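Possible regression after last week's pipeline update?

I re-ran a chain I had predicted before the update to compare outputs. Posting the input and the new output here so someone can diff against the archived version. Not blocking, just want to make sure nothing changed silently.
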Amino acid sequence: MRARITPLGTLLALVAGLLTALATSSPAQAAPLFKAPYPCGQKWTYSHHSAEVRQALDFIRSDGGTTAGTPVLASASGTAYRYSQPSGAGNYIVVDHGSGWKTYYFHLNAYSVANGAWVAQGQQIGTTGTTGNSSGAHIHYEQLYNGVGQPIVINGASLAPYPGSYGSKYLTSDNGCSGGGGGKYWVDTFANATGYAQANTNDAQGVLNAGTNYVYCKVWGQEVRDGSGNFNHWWLRTDLDTVYAGKNGYGAYVSAYYLSRWGNDEARDNNGTVIPTC
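New output (post-update):
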């Protein structure tokens, strides 16, 4: 049987198709490893509504903290540019990450960096606000490739399909958690401690084992008191060792009552450093 010779035109068409496929896949390969646009350990809920453009998401806090004034962080390193659109986006920042990728942060209460400044991933670039056309404090967040909105991807995982309202999907940030212990404070706990969804004992998520553990930050909440009069109102955000079925052990709260080294209403790490408020 004679070998079949592929016509030159067909071969060129196949090559062109292959190149097109490679070009189509390049945005995902070129994208930075984006992280959430708010501080390490914080839990926010997000939504998308029909009026949103460019596949944007709106984020508000859902961990008991106040949305307004919370730091807005760069999702990845790049050059930050400041803009203002009083009738729309309000005060906003665009971070150019190179290779066609940009992130947008709308409705800022204030800027935290100079125009044209280079920013690192996790660096504060502004504070959450409600400037421009906004009904309340939130972070309007976008990821664009060559000017086209992309589905939001955090830590390599897509947040699509988007919910149409708050309260059904959540995202706990690890932005700024890594590097030289940044964002983590090491503490000793004297007993196994139940971790909860908020700074109270309403919704148990799992258990933090006794020993040396890391925590991210603290919030003021329900008092925990024992029969000897020892007490603490501070709750520490951390990641649990054991997670109950159907629960979330990442970014849970454990009472600072369990700290081995400190007294009533204190929340310090093993070096004596005051753990920051979330």
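Follow-up from reviewer: compared with the archived run. Residues 205 and 245 are 8 Å apart (CA to CA). Marking as no regression found.
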